[in-house]
Each structure stands twice: as structure tokens, then as C-alpha cells.
Amino acid sequence: MSLLALHRVSKTLRDGSRRRTVLREVSLEIDRGEYAVVWGLRASGRSTLLRIAAGIEPPDLGEVHFEGRQVAAGGENVLGAGIGFCQKRFGSGECRHVRDQMAVGLLARGIGPAQAQAMVSAALERCGVRELAHAGLGELDRAETVLVAIARTLAVEPRLIVVDEPTNGVELLARDGILSLLRSIADDGTAVLASAGDAPALAGADRTLALSDGELRGTQVPELAPVVPLRRRA
């Protein structure tokens, strides 16, 4: 049984007075420990696909299952319990520092302060940004923001991480570090489903799929395949 399975998912969005079908009977399976990337042009529907996969919004038609259970937005709480959706923006509350921002979500889940701090430290260490623990959120550059966001998602120990365009807006020299991190997270057994808008962002993936005209093209069911290599530095 696949970790995540989308079966004939369709979605139509309203664009002013017009309606546009962004997903047309899309089926997709993700295995444990797999790193899969969906790529396409702007407005191709890849962000919508990831939000549906994470249970944030429902499909118009079709079903989504996680570990054999049906996922429905507003239904069973798999988001946060098994699926981690990586939000690359931070709330504008009182938590202005990285450690506090990461801990508040854990505390809201009923985790004790000491354990929450330990989980935050472990996640920051795992993502190679331990030195940013006491940095202000406004001090982070784009790459650091993405790495901290991934760490915040990892802190809740999900079995699947969903991240939309992790390298978007990141300087070229910093992209490989993010892609290598996602590859290593999958190697450790946590599945990764990401999206990309350009070919370099596909590096390190086990499987890449293209989304165009509402249809998903590529190998929709996991199988053994060579990993897309990371770019070599000059």
C-alpha cells in the first residue's frame, strides 16, 4: 500500500467570470521514503495539487488516501499528524525569533516546553541551521527562511513532507543545499512531495512528473528509477 494515493482527482478554479480546470482526473501514488517532484508552468495547477495532497483543500472529484485512510479537508486530522505541509512564511505574532516560532506550534499540540525545545533543536540541527535558533525572523535570507521552514515541518516528525517550490527565489549557489536536504530527508525514510517551476529544481528526485492542461504526465505509480543527480558545482 502506498503512503499517499490520489485517485482521479479533479479541480476547477474560478478566474474572474471564467472557470478553469486545473486538475483533470489526476492519479498519483507516493511511497515511503520517496522524493517526487511535480513541475509545470505558472498557473499549471501544481500548487493546487500539493494542497489537495496535503489535505488543505478538497478536490471537486476523486479521492485522496494517506496510509489507507481517506483524506478530506476539515475531516480527519492527518495534516500535522502524518503529513507536514511546509509553510515558507511565518506568522506575524509575538514570536519574532526562530526558536520561539518553531516551538509555538509544538506547544499548541500539547507537547511540554522542555520536549518542544529539544525537538526544535534536533530539527534545526538536522537541517544544518542550528546557528539560526536565536536569529530574528526578519534577519533571514531566502535560503535560510526555506531551511528553517523545513526544520519547523520536520519538528512534528511527519511521514510525508509537502513543499511547494522550495527553491523559488533562492540564489543559485544556495539551491543545492536545499535540494540535498530534501534528498537526505527522503533517504531517512520520510517521503517528500515537492513542486518545481524549472528543470534545475528537479535535481535529486526519485521521480519527476509534468503537469500541463490539467493532466499529470510521467510515471504516476512508484517504481525503481535512477535518481536525478544534483548539479555539480563548477
How would you describe this structure to a colleague?
With 234 residues, the chain is an alpha/beta fold. It has five helices and ten strands, in the order βββαβββαααβαβββ. The chain has helices at 46-53, 98-108, 113-126, 142-154, 172-187; strands at residues 4-15, 18-30, 35-39, 61-66, 69-71, 83-85, 160-163, 191-196, 207-212, 215-217.
Give me the secondary-structure topology.
Layout: E1 4-15, E2 18-30, E3 35-39, H1 46-53, E4 61-66, E5 69-71, E6 83-85, H2 98-108, H3 113-126, H4 142-154, E7 160-163, H5 172-187, E8 191-196, E9 207-212, E10 215-217
Parallel strand pairs: 3-8, 3-9, 6-7, 7-8
Antiparallel strand pairs: 1-2, 1-4, 4-5, 9-10
Helix pairs in contact: 2-3, 3-4
What strand line-up does the widest sheet have? 6-7-8-3-9-10
Number of domains: 2
Can you identify the CATH superfamily of the largest domain?
P-loop containing nucleotide triphosphate hydrolases
The CATH C-level class name of the largest domain: Alpha Beta
The tally of strands reads: 10
Distance between the termini: 42 Å
Number of helices: 5
Helicity level, as a percent range? 25-40%
Mean pLDDT: 88
